[in-house]
Amino acid sequence: MTLSGRFVTLLALGVVPVVLLGREGNLAALVMLGWVVFCVVLGAVDALLAASPRRLAFERMLPARVRLGETVTSDLLVTNLGSRTLHGLVRDAWQPSAGAPAQRMPVAVPAGERRAVRLGLTPRRRGERRVERVTVRSRGPLGLVGRQATLLAPGRIRVLPPFASRRHLPSRLARLRELDGLTSVMVRGQGTEFDSLREYVRGDDVRSVDWRATARRGAERPDGGENLVVRTWRPERDRRVVIVIDSSRLSAARIDDEPRLDTAFESALLLAALASRAGDRVDVLAYDRRVRARVQGASGAELLSRMVDSLAVVEPELIEMDWAAVPAQVDTLTRQAALVVLLTTLDAPGSSGGLLSVLPQLTRRHTVVVASVTDPAVLAATGSRGDREQIYRAAAAERALLDVARVSAAARRLGAEVVTAAPAELPPAVADRYLALKAAGRL
Amino acid sequence: MSEQGTMRAAAAQTPTLRQALRGARFWLVLAAIAVVVVIATLIIRGAGDAASDIELGATNPAPDGAGAVVQVLRDHGVHVVEAGSLREARRATARDSHATLLYYDPKTLLTADTLRSMRALAPSIVAIDPSFAALQALAPGVSAAGVARHSTNLPAGTGCTDASAARAGTITASGSAYRVSGDAQGCFSTGGGAWAMAQQRTDGRLVTVLGSTDLVSNQSISHAGNAALALGLLGADETLVWYLPTLADVAASGPPSLAELTPGWVTPVMVLLIATALAAAFWRGRRFGPLVVEDLPVTVRAEETMEGRARLYQRASARLRALDALRVGTITRFARRLGLPESASVSEVSDAAAALLGRDPREVRGILLDSEPGTDTELVALTDRLTALERAVTRASVPGGASASPHEATQATRTTNTTESDRPGE
Fold it and tell me: Which domains does chain A have, with CATH numbers?
């Protein structure tokens, strides 16, 4: 049951008859009592005449997925199964971070009919956003008293990582195409694949002239020049790329108002998009002590959609990463040599011990890239040295940078490639490192 | 319509009125029991409470009450009517013209006029320890004689014609004594010509004056012949009016109270406004359905460890350690900028920097390695010199003398050239 402002006003208006009619104490008390009873009876009648807020059926029309930062419309179809027209307000009780507007939606549903309650949702957080209940407040014909009921109408929407780094994709794809069809300046046997033979054009490296093929063609050109044939190369295809995303406690830290984990997702998405275009096979694993998400054996557009879908619900877990289990996890994904990209945190030597201890196992068979976010705030802190406090801060920041450098150096000595960058720069930096490795034929 | 015929109403989470009542059944039953217990307690206690603390109250079981004699009289068929005001006493005696009126007024609430009108109420009046004015009005032939000289085992005396007194024999009662004159007679001599009880009959109405409450009070009714006297005097008629004057007998006077001055509608309006306020609170406070639960992610600011380390340095005044951290950073950047190998020692870097700037190697070495800050002021000064040196090296090593600050420049190198960013001395 609910009361409206009208009911309160009506009750307060009782002051007028009480003052006018009730000169004497007893009569005034009677008039007052009578007015209260009048209001209560009127309210009860109003409540009885209101449509039942329980005799309703709901259906939801909701897109299954939305990218973070985009807006979708959610339609709640309210069917009135009762015998009276429902006038009232509807609250679709979405979780706060689903970004539903705060106001209540007015509805008028005649008996036996159906109306849509439309909301615009702008989710503020990645992951699964849910709605469980709908609360309906049905108003009586006089608008004095209402009836309220909360009904179950579950729904959910999956909010995908934004993949903001896809703006870097076109330039990286262009670089990939440049790799394609280049005459190789590399020493043969370094792993780039033979692509085709074509005629020499000015500017080609003379070292890539295939003399045997030139001899086979034999004939001389009318202008007296030789019909030189050069070999062309293309980057290797069908290599394996395994992306391991560390979802342990260190990934919860916010840098530039973005958790490390989300930066790792951005990097993983950009790298996967690039690598699948380049013809490599990408497997993704989010791991701390358990597998939080795994995408295996997908390619092309399906790979990206499966990745955002399964990564959307991964949140940082406040537990330590179990690095010792990572080589075995990588082995379950691929048996051949692969490019293993570890999206993790290179921090103090103490917290990176686990990573460093398993790197030899990984580098023995695979090419390993360790990618970590650096904190621009720390870099900025080294520069501000105004007063005593800032100097101590700068010293601590230098110390932190030194720690990162030491861990990075240790990782490099163990055979891994290290990429560190600020959150906005890490995804393209990882992609560039991938391209560099590909160009060098090290996949 | 066929489609809607198959639709099922959504499951409601708000309980219906019946479900709510059923859910709260335990508490409702508990509340009902509590109410019953409270009411029963009130009834049980209220029976004794009403007049229990009044002296000589007809239902007062306390030592100074008179519950005992009233109970005995009732058991013997005497109709005892309690009266708290003269109006009630008049109403009681009007019903039965043959009634005995007991009158006890220790606070002397009645005026002479009301006393005179009271005398006409009943054919027999028993006045216990009356005031001077009451004595004047009821029995002019009886006069007060102060405190009784003797009080134990007073004999009825030969001059006493009252049958009850004769039956009682002796009484034990301490209190006032009376002298008699004219047609009044005294019983139970207290010595010195004074009596513990006096009677005067005027116009066929008998007024008995008793000097002591001991004769009827629970505490002393059982002494000597007290009980016999009390029962004889009070049980003579079928009706006994037990009249103890209260404030209701006092005529009201004085200035009007606040309640009399305010108009009659003020209290009802206040009650109505309170009801309105409650309704308004319910109107505004009614929640639109239950709260929605959402588990929020932890928010960990990454630079907190750095801030913590900075505060530790500061609290411990670890000046040299702080300065060394800054120096290591600077030396690392110098080595990279000056194209020195990773294995270059600090003095090599220092000398290279001095050579680049054309400054005294010892001075540069002092900034980069040797000098130790003793106070915070020295720390600030050394840091300033270190920063200036770094800026100078940056400017000298960048072709064309770029004006960018050393940190912006180093930031750029650090984010892109991370593969080559190993520091010396590792």
Answer: 1-160 (2.60.40.10), 181-234 (no CATH), 238-439 (3.40.50.410)
Q: Is A318 on the interface with B (CB under 8 A)?
A: yes
Consecutive H or E run containing A128: strand A127-139
pLDDT in tens, B86-144: 888 888 888 887 889 999 988 888 888 888 888 888 888 999 989 888 888 888 888 88
* CB contact residues (below 8 A), chain B span 330-359, against chain A: 332
Structure tokens at A332: 């379950």
Distance CA A392, CA A380 (A): 13
Minimum Cα–Cα distance from B391: chain A residue: A383
**Chain A interface includes B306 (CB < 8 A):** yes
Positions of chain B with pLDDT under 70:
1-6, 46-52, 252-254, 399-426
C-beta atoms surrounding A345 within 10 Å:
29
Is the CB of residue B272 less than 8 Å away from at least one CB of chain A? Answer: yes
Which residues of chain A lie closer than 8 angstroms to B313, CB-CB? 392, 395-396
Do the bridges between strand A127-139 and strand A145-160 make them parallel or antiparallel, or are there none, so unpaired? antiparallel
Distance, CA of A257 to CA of A248 (rounded, Å):
18
Contacts of B102 (CB under 8 A, 6+ apart): B126, B128, B216, B234, B240, B241, B242, B243
Distance between CA B345 and CA A405 in Å, rounded? 17
Q: Closest partner residue to B265 among A7, A18, A315, by Cβ?
A: A18
Cβ–Cβ < 8 Å for A112, A82 = no
pLDDT digits (tens, 9 = 90+) for B203-243: 888 899 998 888 888 888 888 888 888 888 888 888 899 99
Q: What does the DSSP 8-state code read for residue B12?
A: B
Tokens of B285: 């406070």
Those of residues 25-64 in B touching chain A at CB distance below 8 A are none
